[in-house]
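If you are new to this repository, start here. Below is one unmodified record pulled from the training split, so you can see the exact layout before writing a loader.
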Amino acid sequence: MLPNKINELFTKEVLSNLLPPQKSDEFFEALYGDPDEGAYDISLLFKNYAGDRKILSFEFQLHERPGKCLACNLTYGLPEVFSRHPVINIKGIVEKIEMLLNNDTTCESWELGRTRTPKDNVHTIPMTIRLK
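And here is the target side for that same chain:
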């Protein structure tokens, strides 16, 4: 599958299965005890595959919920929180990605970058997966 069809692999449906929309509510339920306290919805976006370096690039997107303030939330500490939080379960997401690759390769490591703010109502957290 690598690298020719990898860009076709990560469709919106596949990404939604990797990080289902209800994970946002589950995350805020675990953090605050009430999913309505959440200021954003979390989704996963595939960015690209750098075949020469064997790197898959994704990003978690945090979309401000209506009537909430994304800028007022502490999104800059989220990479550390996401990396350990059992609801987000990045290790599980990476394992699922590895299964999607049909044993063509394995995931050697993953890391989250710093929170970015491309728009006032959207923050992103880059995720890099290094393949063997």
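Two things worth knowing about this chain: The radius of gyration is 15 Å. The mean pLDDT is 92.
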